[in-house]
Amino acid sequence: MNKAALYASIAMLPALAYAPLTLAQPESQTKSQAITEMKPLEKPLGVGDTMPAFVIDDASGGKLDLAKILEKGPVVLSFYRGSWCPYCVTELSEIQSRLETISGTGATV
Hints:
Elements: H1 3-18, E1 55-57, E2 63-65, H2 66-70, H3 86-97, H4 99-104
Antiparallel strand pairs: 1-2
Helix pairs in contact: 1-3
């Protein structure tokens, strides 16, 4: 990986670590929707936008409900495409190396 790609990946971390999704559930939505029930967004989310609530399957066969996780505090959300993506692998490595700091702020990754 070249230095520019590494620096770009690292530059994204503050946004993930310090811009938690504290208001992830829209006021009009009383409970999380299954991901299959969600409507496509008209445009991508930007900095400061609210993440729609969702429920997804986790790696162990359980369910992850964003609204329930948010009850514990802020959430750091990362979109991981796969081990074949060098940017994703670098991002997860950097998050892992800062996990204690992130958890220390009360956030969940």
